[in-house]
Amino acid sequence: MIDWNVAVQTGTRLVRSGPQVSPTEARQVVAELRDLSRTAQGHVREFTGMDGGLDPSPAKVVDRPGWIKANVDGFRVVLEPLMEQLQERRGGGGMLGGIGGGAGGAVIQAVGSRVTGAQVGAILAYMASRVLGQYELFLPPDPTGRAPTGRLTLVAPNIVHAEQELDVDTRDFRLWVCLHEETHRAQFASVSWLRAYVQDQMTAFLLAADLDPGALLNRLRDVGEAVADAVRGGEGNLIDAIQTPEQREILDRLTAVMTLAEGHGDYVMDAVGPEVVPSVADIRAKFQHRREGGSGVDRVMRRLLGLDLKMKQYAEGSQFVRTVIEQVGMEQFNRVWTSPNTLPTHAEIKDPALWIGRVVGKPELPPAE
């Protein structure tokens, strides 16, 4: 289990402070980001044709500790029910409880949960200074039932830090970021099955974890090799190291849909940009250079956490979306959102002609599962 309170405490303690701005400047940034998120939502809706069920509320603007707390809330929604299932499969009190027995086992498990919570908090602290925004898929249940099922969040200090570091027009950059994030809101608000599909794949991935002590030992050995490879400049990462063969198949499907979502967001922010963000070309060039840079330690952390793979997703996904739209148009591209069976596979993302032939080239769409 994970001690979520320790995760929040550790993350908020370790996270670096953001750029120094006055209270007045901070209020102005928050107000402009909220306003620009509404503006971006209109541009995204008009450009993509995705407008079903969109939440008209502005984005929630948070600081770095606020982002950490929001992500811990999301993790709890997804992981706590799965932790209970895994404990049941392990035979009650879990592996550590079973080995220690009685109160001793409970103490060992409690200590383990705090250590794991601290590890989660440390990773979130690292991420919290880099994320510009995200669409939160998993929120705690709303007792009234009136709140949206997802929420768009923008991390104000990171946006300010990025625009200062890049030396770009602040309004243009903020709107450009909002275009990407609002595209994610459009995807999950307009495509009724997409959220459940992602959650089902995540659930299957976690439940496919090895429970056998020997297999877990092999996973730990792979983690050590991944760390050594990343330090040497290789492509080893923790995500690959801890997977079982079954998990790799599931992650392939999950990675394909997230590559599509991230690439679609990148495509829209650049395609809409020239009309509403005059300096979009300058912003994209500088931002891409920033994505690829960083210190040696930062590059190792990115590789270990799989963030370099995420950057590759942006590029491959954007190229897939661009190629399909150029060849068959936006209306035909939007068939990608029809069902899980119309999502592109890994092979189709790398070769969009395969997807066009399978989905657009058929008189009838592949049936939903």
UniProtKB/TrEMBL annotation:
<dbReference type="InterPro" id="IPR018766">
    <property type="entry name" value="Zinicin_2"/>
</dbReference>
<keyword id="KW-0378">Hydrolase</keyword>
<protein>
    <submittedName>
        <fullName>Zinc-dependent metalloprotease</fullName>
    </submittedName>
</protein>
<dbReference type="InterPro" id="IPR022454">
    <property type="entry name" value="CHP03883_F420-assoc"/>
</dbReference>
<dbReference type="InterPro" id="IPR042271">
    <property type="entry name" value="Zinicin_2_N"/>
</dbReference>
<dbReference type="GO" id="GO:0008237">
    <property type="term" value="F:metallopeptidase activity"/>
</dbReference>
<keyword id="KW-0482">Metalloprotease</keyword>
<keyword id="KW-0645">Protease</keyword>
<dbReference type="Pfam" id="PF10103">
    <property type="entry name" value="Zincin_2"/>
</dbReference>
